[in-house]
Structures are given as C-alpha cells and as structure tokens.
Fold these 4 entries.
Entry 1:
Amino acid sequence: MARSSVVTTPVIRSMTSADLTRVLELESAIFPQPWSPGVFRDELALDNRRYLVASVDENILGYAGLMLLGEDAHVTTVAASPDAGGMRLGTRLVLELVEMAMEAGTRHLTLEVRFSNERARELYRRFGFAPVGLRKNYYRTEDALVMWATDIDVPEYADRIADIRRSLESSDE
C-alpha cells in the first residue's frame, strides 16, 4: 500500500505567552545556547517586536521573531522542528517576517546566522539577503555571518516576495 505524501499546511499566528512552554522546548532542542524564558517574555512585551509561531493541529513546530527599528528590521530568530520536514516551515516563517517588515515601511533587513548553517544561509539568500560581514565568536563555538537584504521597499523586491508566496501556495495545492 502506498504511503500518503500529503503535507499539512501550518497555521502561522502571533506568539503569545501561552506558547512559551512549547517554544522553550523547541529552543532547547534546536539551539546550543537557548534563550531563557525571561528573554522571550521580555521580547514579547516590547512594542517593536513581532513573534510568530507555526503550528499544525495546535502543535507548535516553529517560531520566528522580528525587531522593527525604523527603516531597518532585524530577524531575531527562526526555528523549525525537525518534525516539520516537507512543510517548508523556514520559508513560511521568513516570508511572514519579511512581509511584516515591508508593511511596517522598513527599507532593510538584517540577521546573523551560524557560519556553518548552509541550509539557513541558502534560505536567506532566496529572500535577497547577502553576506556583509562576520561576527567573530558570536556563538559560543562559532562565528556568525551577518546578512542584509537592502531596498526591500522597491517593486523588484516585492516581486521576489510574491514569487516565493506563489511557490508556497502552489505546493499547498
């Protein structure tokens, strides 16, 4: 008998403090230097922060955050459970963050990513992020690659984002 290859489309919504238990479980499982509960609570309380969770059947499988800083926005975190394979969860979460930044009128996006995390670096490149520098010893055992996506307020960037959204929507059909 053939196995079904149907992948459920996750629901993406704003993170609340009620989500923190599961978010902290994922944080500890994914990152060698996890944020503390206090850091997440502080972040959720700030007006210029936006945090999202992605879930399937009420089970949180990923989350992401954004800090709005006038013309700039900074991606603070993106995390997806290994159990979310095939859902393109990283793409979905980054897309939502980028669209939030665009709606807020920002012009540039920044982030840091582990230098060794080629999969994440490729994801960010699809969104127009380019490497601009290195932060030595940013992580306990590794450097961070600093990446920027500039001019996200121009029509060409909006076209790039629309193409990514269409790609996700066609894969959901």
Entry 2:
Amino acid sequence: MTGSAAEGLDVLVVLGGDGAAHQGVQFCAGTDVALGLVPSGTGNDFARALGVPSDPLAAVDALDLTARRRIDLGRVGDTWFATVLCSGFDALVNERANSLRWPSGPRRYDVAILAELASFRARPVLIRTEHETLQLDATLVAVGNTPFYGGGVPICPGARPDSGTFDVTVVGKLPRRQLLRMLPSLRTGKHIDHPAVRTLKAESVHLDGNAWPVYADGEPLGHVPTDIRCIPGALTLVGISPAQG
C-alpha cells in the first residue's frame, strides 16, 4: 500500500470493524490520503466516535468524498491509534477475550470480565504527564483520543479527537465487589463521578510501575512501561454528509 500512496492514492475507504480501521489508520496517518469508514465489525468504536452511521449502506451513502476533516491520533513508538489506549483490568479483559473461542460477539467480553474479576488485583502505577505525576495502586488507566472502547463504552467520555489533548481516566484501587458495582456505570459514563476515579488532560503520558499489557484500538501494543503522545491533526478523514451522519 505504500506504493499506492506514492502513486497518488487520494482516499482509502475501509470496510470492517475497529481492527480494520486501525490498519487503515497506520496507512493514512501522516499522509494526505483521507480515510473513510464503513463499519461492519463488532465494536465499531472509531466510527461511533466520528458519527458514522452504524448501518454499512447508510455509511456508504454518507461519505462525502469532496469534504475533508483532520483529527488527532495517539502514538506509541511507531504505532498510531485512533480511539483509546488502555492498561490494567480492561486490557487484561481484552487479552483474555481474544483467547476465548466461545462465545462470540460482545458476550465474549462479559465472560472475560467475570474471569478476570476472580483473580484481578490492583497494581502500583506511575502516571506522568506534562502537568503532573501520580503514583497509586490502580485498577486501570485509559488514555482516550475518542470516548469509546469495548463496543460503545464511554470510558473517556470527555475525549474529543480534535482537541490536541488526551482525556485520561484513572480508576484507583477498588475491592472486587465495588469494581463489580461500578461496571454498569461505565456504559453511561457516570463512572467518572466515582470517588476512586480521577480524570486528567494531557498531550503526553508515561506509564510505568508494573508490567500490565497495553492495548489500543483493541490491538496489543506491548506492556508497561510505555510512552504515549497525542499528535494533532495527524489523520485526514473523508467527510460525513450532514443529511446522513
């Protein structure tokens, strides 16, 4: 595909879920090639954040190939991400869900959550941004370029992909029973009102202190320690028609 870009490719339209969108982001980021999304996967969190219609045919109709929009991306090493980077309980759930052959779809994550709850323990973590440094026992850390992960969970409800900053959600140490009680509030974004939750805004985030797995756009990106940067205007998107989007 690199050769195609050099030959003057103008638009790349990706049909699929967040995994396919993630691959499209790797190709288009930092170039003049505009990315269009036609969601047909399980989660479709990137498309959801951009207001792309969930129905594939409606999404195709909504593409405005004459319009362009630039948004920010996150970057870890040489890898770009568009939605949320997570580490801790949610990343462990993602890892376990990927290993399950049954059930399929969102129910796979429900099974993975229950399995992780049985053995999960908060871990020490260091979070350093350009503004502050936190050290605490944490349940999870989510770094959001957009609000959603896990098929519509607004873990970073204030995140906007054209703000030039990440929204960071940090969940401190919670007893297993309290964590279980908090899980339903994740679906509504009300978790940020919990006293164990802290939110930050940052252009760069360094995570250290343990060896938790790191996932972004639902894809594995190694383990903590890791450095995450927000790159403003790194991706050009195909426009969405207001009449359809």
Entry 3:
Amino acid sequence: MQTEQVHHYKVLIERGQDGFFIAWVPAIPGCHTQGKTYEELIANVKEAIQLCLEVANDTPDYKKKLAEAAYAPTFIGIEEVAVRV
C-alpha cells in the first residue's frame, strides 16, 4: 500500500479588479487559478497543483520543466515604487 505524501507550496495571491482572487504557484510553471471567494480560490489552487503534478507524472517534458523550476521561493515583501511619468 502506497502512502500519500504531503507537499507544501508557496502560493502568491492577489485580488483582481473584477473582485476575483487570483493565485499562482511559482515553483510549478503554468500553475495558476482563480476563485470568486478566498475559500473557493484555496480549493481551486489545491486542485490545480494536483492536476499539474499528475500531468508531470505522465509527461516527461513537463516533469523536466518542474525539476528545473523547483525551488522554494522565499517571500521578501511587497514594495510600492514611485515612478515619475
């Protein structure tokens, strides 16, 4: 019997102009989703991560891309930058 492993991913979340929550996973190229509520977003991002990992198991090129991009990003912060135009 195979036991399930739990993996932890950092997810970047923002709220779009339309009010939807948007998330992407820097460690998994192409892994992004949205949700009308924060709770829906979290459920959707878990599903998106699972789907990306399933695709990686079946697609050698994507699996290689994941291995190349695999890193644990460290959150530094958010900075507002003033620009004269």
Entry 4:
Amino acid sequence: MKIVICPGMHRLQLSQRFVTALHPSQETLIFPTEKAPAYSPLHVLEFLSPTEATTPLVFIAFSAGVVAAIGAARLWQKQGGTVSALIALDGWGVPLAGDFAIHRVSHDRFTAWSSALLGGSDSDSFYADPAVEHLTLWRSPQTVQGYAITANRRSRQTSITAASFITALLQRYEVSTSTRH
C-alpha cells in the first residue's frame, strides 16, 4: 500500500509536518502543489507513476486537494488501479462517492454534519471538538482532539486525536491489502 497526499493551497512544509505527525510506515507520495493546481485530478493522475498501478493506494487530501483526490482516485480505478480508501480532511462542499471507502475528517461538528449530506458518511469519520481553525487540522493533527464516529452511527463516539484516527485507518487498510495478496 502507498499513501498519496493531496494537499490544499498552502506551503509544502505544512504537508511535511502533517506526514511527520502521522508517522506512516507506508511509502508516502506528496503531490507537488507548487508545480500544479491543488484541485486538479488530472495533474494528480499524471503525478502517479504507472508502476503504482499494482499497489493499492490510500489518498489523504486536505481542502482543495479533496477535489483532486476524489477525481484522481476514480480515474485511477477506471484505468485498472486499486484504491483502498480516501481520507478527506475538510473537503467541505465536495461531493464524495466512489467504489472505495471514503472517510471524512472535519475541523468542527457542523462541517462534519453538513459534509455528510454530500457523501462519504457510510464509513467511519471524525470531527474536532472543540472546533479548531481549518488549517490547524492539517498543520497539527496530533493536537486536534475530537470524536471518531463509526459508520453505523450506533456505537458511542470515541474521543481521539485526528492523527490517531487517521493512523488507525491506515493500519486497517494496510492489513486489508496484505491479506488480499
């Protein structure tokens, strides 16, 4: 499994801090938004090497990068690639649908609720409580407290940091992809 990071419109250092906060054991590719529009799925698709077609991908996207990630993930699948999941951080207003798991991570409860109306609410999600600034979610996910919400919405919400929530998802998809081979 490889992780594809689709940042928003901000400095590269913030995305590097985000990745450092997660401590991923998987190879991580950061889409270079300083060279191409953060919201462009075609540029993300060009960024991915054809050699990645045999490796399951997990997209993690922030803000405008969510637009690029959902489009690129769907196109990647149409070209024969495997997408295990998309983790969308503050993709408010972006409709999310695909033949893969989609998780929303939001900087506040209202964003979580209103974004769920546009898809991506069939899988586990997270919202910050207390609410944080939009960019804090990306810059410092290890400091953002909130609640994990299970897909079936029947389980009690679990208090957790955004980084711990995302790391748990990555571990879940690492296990599921290793059992398929």
